[in-house]
Amino acid sequence: MKRYTLLILTVLMLAPLLPLTNQTSNLEQAQNQAFSASQYSATLVDDNPMNLSSGQYHTCANSLDGSLMCWGYGGNGRLGTGTGADQLRPVLVNFPGSKDVVQIATGNSHSCVILNDGSVNCWGKNSKGEVGDGTLIEKTSPVSVNLGSGRTAIKIAVGDEHTCAILDTGDVSCWGAGHTGRLGNGGVAIKKTPTLTSSLGTGRTAVDIATGDIHTCAILDNGRVSCWGYGGEGRLGNGQSSINSESPSLVNSLGTGRTAVAISAGYSHTCALLDNGSVSCWGYGYAGQLGRSGVSTNGQSTPMLTSDFGNNRTATTISIHATGGNACVILNDGNLSCWGSSGLDLTGRIHSTFRKLSKLGH
Q1: Could you list the residue range(s) of the whole structural domain that residue 273 is in?
Q2: How many angstroms separate the first and last alpha carbons of the chain?
Q3: CATH code of 266's domain
Q4: What percent of the chain has pLDDT over 70?
């Protein structure tokens, strides 16, 4: 069952990179190369990966032994291997002091990790300060990020051009592009180093965090959700469909007595796994990514339950590809349920790819 789940997660992260129809020959070639990389990645199953994260054109996995391997498109140094070269096979990423990786987060063009001492390292595109080292210079290898005196990170999330981390105090610190208020600090300026968000509420702390391209959401210690950044199409879930928020803003009710236990965000929508195993989503639903029919093309500005999973099944894990219009959950019976779109029928793509990975992983 463990290996089965790992294969599902591998497919989930790589599904948006699989070959699509009606594309140019160059793009088809690039996508076919990405598919070859997914075949190679199956060899990681025997190395017990504990964490997988997929960006726009690259994927990283860290193993139980604390090592990190990345593969895919290498532009902007997003693989962290010291060059901008593409890699069709997983390549080891080295860190100063041989520290172990405990969490990996990948965005469109940059990546960040939390190491076993709570420190953060980032690399890749850095045109808006998203790497967090105080410069705007692209980094092809991991560099240390200063979280503040004595501070460590417990969770990290990476968006298009911004990064946010939950600190050991429960505060949230963000850096990178500030446009639309996605850093949550009350302003819109670029921040090249970590900057604390505005208050999450009196006595409130964050326990989980997710970043879309230009918005951010966090689960608070009381199970409520707070979001900030671009408010178009209702992606902040606060009842507004066109107003940005430069500071954390509470999402409307998740339902009577309901709390969030996990959260994941895509380009323009967010979904939260609730304490009873149901899933609630909000934001742009143009391609079915909110998990039910009848959603306005203008977006859903308040949380809305997805359709029922059937047969008394509930969700146990949720993931949304950072740049895609889809979401997937692992159910309590081990099945995988997906909705939305990534250019063609996602379920068919996952079924086909899972079959291929199964043959490689046994």
Answers
A1: 146-341
A2: 12
A3: 2.130.10.30
A4: 79
